[in-house]
Every structure is written in structure tokens, then in C-alpha cells.
Amino acid sequence: MERISEDMERRAAEFVWRTGGVLDQRRLEAVTGAGSAGAVRAAVLAHRTPEGGFAYGIEPDVKGPAAQPLSAMGAVEILAEAGALDESTGVAVCEWMARHAAPGGGVPDLLASIAAYPRPPWVAPTPQDQGGLLTTARTVGLLRGAGVAHPWLEAATAWCRGRIDALEATHPYEVFSVSAFLESEPDRMWADRSAERIGAIVRAGLVLLDPADTAAAVPPGYAPGEHHLACDFAPRPDSPGAAWFTGAEMRAALDARAAEQAEDGGWPIHYRRWHPGIEQQARPGFTVAALRTLRAWEGRA
After folding, report:
1. Contacts for 49 with CB less than 8 Å, ≥ 6 apart
2. Alpha-carbon distance 101 to 95, whole Å?
3. pLDDT for 120-135, tens place per residue?
């Protein structure tokens, strides 16, 4: 079934060229085959701080020049999606993460320095003596998947496994990170068992299986209407989360995602608007992500 047409892609590209910054435009080129991994890498590294972290709005909700673990995670994710995560960049991220790691190897999602800059109400410094699974698991998973080796990864891997084993409740963004970790985990027996358990938690209340049921309850702490679809948990057919959903459920999610394209060619953001410019800043990235997901599943569901 054709879900994404040439016209949809053309309108999406026009939207990103019209509203996106250099980074999102380079990501668009990589998705459509018109660009290069090196160009994406150069755009990402423009957000690197002198001490080796990442800042300057690479994550739209994290403002200011102070490097944050969450921003480093975002940089690693963009590099990985473009095939631009090389050994030297990965090791530099590990070095920076290691300097900010809490006991055990996990890294706080946000450092105390975030308090000095504009941010949404839900973005605040996390306990500095505790690691955050959201940031640590996704960063570790993507770095391991790219073949990066570093002592911090070994400690952080053990910490993540312990946290995942103890996980009884979670939220969608943390699940995305756990999935990235499980995808690159060499112990496949443990990873498969963990994925099955996490999938049951997702199906119990974190995913909107019927996209038409917009009145459904949202996960605790989320804004009204802030739902996540099956394709958010499985952006590719080989994602660990793909096994959590039936073919019909995935088709419904993908149909809904395709139908979300707006008249201006872009896709909407799916979280609270905390300042007037956030949609303009974030929608190009959401549009690139929607294109990647729809392209990855084309002909597969």
C-alpha cells in the first residue's frame, strides 16, 4: 500500500526549506538521498561546546549555551540516523558524559546549568547524584550500535541493565530510549525478554492503538491529546517495538501519521506549546522524522 506519495514528499521538502534551519535541512537531504552524512555531521558539530558537549538548541526545548546530557543524546541520535556517528565523535561524547556521570555510570538528563536559560515548565535540573535512564540508555544504545568503545559505555551499560530490570512503570520517551538500548544489546536473550516486558507496559496505557480515539487518556504527566502511536514506538520495521503491535495496529498508526501532514506540507508537534516560536522551531524536525518513518515502513505494513 502506498502511504507516502511524491507530492507529499515534495510538500514536506518545501516546508523544511521554507522554515527549517541548517541542521534540519541537512537531515532532509540525507533522508531524500540528496545530501551526505558528512554534511549532517558538520551541522551537528556546529552545536558542540568548547568542552565537548552539545547545546545551542539542538534539542528545541533545551535552550542556551550550557551543554546538557539531553542535548548530547539528541546530537548522537541525529548522527546515528544519518550514518554519521564516527569513532572520534562518539569517543568525545563518552568523555564528556563520563565527566558528568553520577555514581554507577548513569548521567543526569539535565545539569543544574539549565536553570539559567529559558525552558518549558517541565524541563528542570534533575538530581545530580542520579543517572537518567532516558538520556543514558539511548546514548549508550546508539553509540554501541555505531561500534564505539569506551570505559564509560561499559559502566553505563551495566547501570542501564539494572535500571531496565527494575522498571515497573515508565513513560513513552523513556521507552524510546530503552528500545535504542535493547536494539544494540549483544545479550539477545536478555534483550528479548526485556523487550517483551516493556512492550506489555506500553500496551497497558502508553500507546494510542486507535488513532481515532483522541479522547483516550494520556500517560501521567502528559498534556491532553499528547498521544503516541504505534509507529512512534517502532519507527522502522526492525525496531524492537515492532513486535509489540499487530499488522492492523501498525497500519492504522501509519495511516494516521500520513494523514497528519498539514496544508503547509509539515507535520505537527505532539507536545505542549510553551512559547510562541516552538512550533516553528520544532516542526521541521518532526517533519523529517515523519518522512523517515513513512519511508521505512513503505510496502511493509
Report:
1. 55, 56, 65, 66, 67
2. 10
3. 988 889 999 999 999 9
